[in-house]
Amino acid sequence: MTTSLATPRDWWEMLDAEFGFTLDAAADHQHFMCTPYYTEEDNAFEQPWRGVVWCSPPWHGIKLVPWIERGYSESRKRGSTVVMLVPVQVYREWWHKYPMLAKELRFINGILDFVPFGGEHNGGFAVEPHCLLIFEPHSGPTIISSYPARTPEKMHELIKVEQNIIMTKPHPSVT
Length: 175
What we know:
Blueprint: E1 5-6, H1 9-19, E2 23-24, E3 52-55, H2 64-78, E4 81-87, E5 104-109, E6 113-116, E7 124-125, E8 130-135, E9 143-148, H3 152-168
Parallel strand pairs: 2-3, 3-4, 5-9
Antiparallel strand pairs: 1-6, 4-8, 5-8, 6-7
């Protein structure tokens, strides 16, 4: 079983409607959000990141840092917009540098419902909070905001499920 997770498609589509992505910089042939896309074989670190780039890089430990550095440098070098989905890791050194260099830092309000690579959707919730780093050439302070973890449709479904659970399963203290 793999620990790699794919970004929820319906959630990504909300972002795509806002940004109009032209490249997925961290994909594989089964899990890509737009075309063109770079796979591990393409080596995204040796390819240009032009246009409006989506990047949900591997999140494991220090492997994340080169991706964030690349997103930042490509936005400066090429004038690209780079939107990165990364974990909020305030205990890591990189966290205290790169989010403050972004044009915008959007905290994800809630937990994303990821899909495991090579597997069926089974509620692959992320175990830590995430954010979007939006790198674009800019001057001035970083804009900090929040972004929903669920589409409006998913929120409606979740509320219906929660209401059903509340109505059908009273707390054990209720007699």
